Amino acid sequence: MKKMNQAPKILKLNETVINKIAAGEVIQRPANALKEMIENSLDAKSTNIQIIVKNGGLKLLQIQDNGCGIRKEDFEIVCERFTTSKLKEFEDLGKIATFGFRGEALASISHVAHLTIISKTISDKCAYKASYEDGKIKSGPIPFAATQGTQIIVEDLFYNMNVRKRALRSPSEEYNKVFEVVSRYAIHNNHVGFGLKKHGETNDIKTSLNSTKIDNIRLIFGAEIAKELVEVMLENETYRFKVSGCVTNPNYSTKKFIFLLFINNRLVECQSLKRSIDQVYATYLPKNSHPFVYLSLELDPASVDVNVHPTKHEVHFFNEDQIIELIITSLETKLLGSNNSRTFYTTGKLPKITLKSEDKTLYQKEFVRTDTNEQKLTKFFGPTSTGKEKSPIKTTKLVDTSLSEDVFDRFNKDFIKRTESLEKETKKDHHLSKISRIEIKLTSVLELQKEIESNSHKNLRELFAQHVFVGSINPKQSLIQYNTKLFLCNTKKILQELFYQYIMYNFQNFDKITLTNPLPIYDLCLLALDLSEVGWTPEDGDKTELSQKVVEILSDKAEMLDEYFSMEIEDGKIKSLPLLIENYLPDMIGLPVYILRLASEVNWETEKDCFKSFAIETAAFYSELYSEEINEGSNWRWVTEHVLYPAIKKFFLPPKNFTENASVLQIADLPSLYKVFERC
Description:
alpha+beta, Heat Shock Protein 90, Ribosomal Protein S5, domain 2, 21 helices, 34% helix, elongated
């Protein structure tokens, strides 16, 4: 019989092996080691930090400061693991205000390099020097001639870890990482003088004591960035945080996103904040371009968990989503106000723009195009289709079938069918039911209408009422012209508000889009709960039970939905939807989520809140335009130009917050552009 394999014996690792493994986690490359030492120098209240690097930091990494120094009696244990002057009890982590606290940095370095420390305190008559190996003192401390402060010399980094050493990049690339760390700390700690140079060469970084952050940015990143900086300041009492920093305005862009983030003075990363900021700038900057952003976020130490990763480059903090949202809103407002006519990418805060026409002599430079048939933005894109553009349908618009059949296959393949003529499709699968006009008498609806009117921005109303449509950039962004100014419009945000207003002013007077094949609410909800955007978790309950609950809620409200909104529900199925605008139907891909949100997000308890929340959810659903990727044949450009923006021009009452939430941005002014050209 074949002998079975014996279970291996479990042994305790040698302490040296344990320490080397831990050191490899903390010190991953020269830049990590230097970051730890810089933070120790800052904790020591240094005002001058000088760094010398050789061979990218692998041969030599030396840092010298003028801080408080290390006492002679502490030299014996300073490189042992978990020895620190900054933390005594575990509970101290909740109020930690220093960079270091675990006492691992110097210990880790001593396990992977030859380490020498020279230090002098204010009370010592001379400095002392000691060398270390594997966390233990190897020689010293011996008297040594040096000024107050600490000098740490790291030589032959990873000499005993050949695999790690071979995995590192070239010396020049490692030096770039070192430069990146020093430059960021030099900008943030502008009260400290920093110096960085390669061994035997002149300084690559040399900042002065008590310089400004912008001075240091100019010195390190160049004048081109510095002259385009705007300062950001935000303080919030609710979440107890403060933000300050400098960001580039829309005049500057670079291929690589330069993002400097400090949380409680610690250099960290926060990918969610970085992505959100990049999305804000995507509205202003050319495609694949990014900004320079430096932010310092101050939080209550008790709300920050710094003990997440050995390198301490990552932290967690309470109310992260809410704080990021407030920062993004503040940043959007700041960018709106950064008006500069020096280049094309300028923005103007709309309340400052004079929109009323005046009787005056028009010069040639102020002539504007008034006939939209003369020139369109799409002319400069080259031919996009064969044949003459025409309206896709007379009454409504269907979604693209190529994707929809896959998505809706679970519950109704017959809902959308591929045909050559969308108009024929409409007459076949949908028909419109006209209704006679009913006077609105409900007090709640009349109050909601008054809210719309009182919140309307007069100047913006004139802008939209007299605009000339220039062209669509994509389904969510379009360009319009008013007088001599060019504006970038967030079509999705505008449509959400427009459709909300349509619902309020056409309450109980909607035409119907009747579906030939009614859609089961239960199956729609199951499909919605499977989508990642909904965020269903097992804690929310069983999907089948939730779907059945939605059927019950909407079926219970069926009579009211049909009477007020022309949404007909029968036997747990959707039979019709309201027609808000002729020739337009939203992307039906969003229907499952819309139906689910009607049950979960609409306040069915009070009349006014019910009508308002229903209108908000419906407007959000109807504002989703077909994307180019989904429906090449849907001709969304035609719908945007000939259906949606004419409706905006005729009916839209823009709210006052449109001047602050980046819904409409002035990106060019003809007279200002002439001034630029005159300089050329």
